[in-house]
Amino acid sequence: MFKSLCALCLLMLLGLSARAQDVESGLAEVNPQTGATIDGRGPGWRALGQDDFINVNCDEDTWTWKNDSVSCTGRPIGVTRTKKVYTNFELVCEWRHLRDAVNSGIFLWGPRETFDRLNGPGLPEGIEVQVLDLGYKAAYERGGNPADWFTCHGDVFPVGASTMKPFPPISPNGRRSFPTEERTLGVGEWNHYYIRAINGEVRLWVNGAEVSGGSDCNPATGHIALESEGSPIEFRGLRIRELP
Questions:
Q1: pTM of the prediction?
Q2: Burial code of 138-155, b = ≥16 C-beta within 10 A, e = fewer?
Q3: What angle do CA 223, 225, 231 make, to 5 degrees?
Q4: What would the pLDDT profile of 22-63 be if each residue is shown by its tens digit?
Q5: Residue 97 burial (CB < 10 Å; 0-12/13-18/19+)?
Q6: What stretches in the chain show pLDDT beneath 70?
Q7: CA distance 180 to 104
Q8: I need a labelling partner for 242 at 20 to 30 A (CA). Which of 6, 36, 141, 144 fits?
Q9: What angle do CA 61, 62, 68 make, to 5 degrees?
Q10: What domains are defined for the chain?
């Protein structure tokens, strides 16, 4: 009996130690549907809030900040970008669409000049991490066109003159990295993104699993931007860790 209790205590101590290491590294447990996610709470991580961003071409009331969370009306089409330029980093956030069949995104490595050209509604160049509601595909196909060139589960792709070598599976036009798993939750539900951008390579984890990305990105340094694209969306828990 005594030996059994000792063994149980040892297992509990090991479990607590492992949990402490997880917290220290930024790894947090979430529900079994989504698995484990990086929550941005370890050493080197910091919150991103209103003071870290500049409204580029949206209305004054398009973005409403509260600590490391922001609500977006979706109008007009445009972005808010980081004041700082980033090269190698990790980024985490949660997002949810508030209406069916709508669109948004997170831009990485956006060149300053492409933001400066946005005098009216529009979007910059850079590498986009898609933030798309599940109903978008059905709405698109109601127009009579096949929705074979995009998915609703975390596409990664270059915008404008930007370039990237996408990880497979690859879209028919050869520009997009399609996700290997369909993990996005529907309208009104929170989704978790962990993005790792290092030395021109981007990798995206959706709700705890790596699904898409690309290498040989050009540009591979620039601003991070959140996209307003026609409908309300919320982002929360924006946190970043810069890397060498």
A1: 0.86
A2: eebeeeeeeeeebbbbbb
A3: 170
A4: 333 344 444 444 456 799 999 999 999 999 999 999 999 999
A5: buried
A6: 1-36
A7: 20
A8: 36
A9: 100
A10: 31-242 (2.60.120.560)
